[in-house]
Amino acid sequence: MSQSSELPIQIDVQTVSEMLKQGDDFLLLDVREPNEYAVAKITGSTLLPLSEIGARVHELEEHKDRRIVVHCHHGGRSLQVTEALRSRGFDKVQNMDGGIDVWSQQIDPSVARY
Questions:
Q1: Residue 95: how many other CB atoms lie within 10 Å
Q2: Of 59, 79, 61, nearest to 69 (Cα)?
Q3: Which SMART domains does this chain map to (predicted)?
């Protein structure tokens, strides 16, 4: 893979799906709220709500050199988190474009839409 700083800020759901299928080493970070996570989630994702990330960002330090793909419902909150993490030196962070809503439409229709 090319240098981490060259990773585009957005990544599409098809690429994330392939990464999961291939067992790639990355953190799939869900920044939605617990009530949203209870309705729909991507298997293997880690929940760290946007509302708590400021107080819990230290939990991500161990993943600083790993690829991190952030997602939310439609991609807005996760883009905020992606930009914030990149500004803190997390060079391999990407936003899953379209969020879990597009995931349920294009990858896994068993994931509920809301």
A1: 27
A2: 79
A3: RHOD
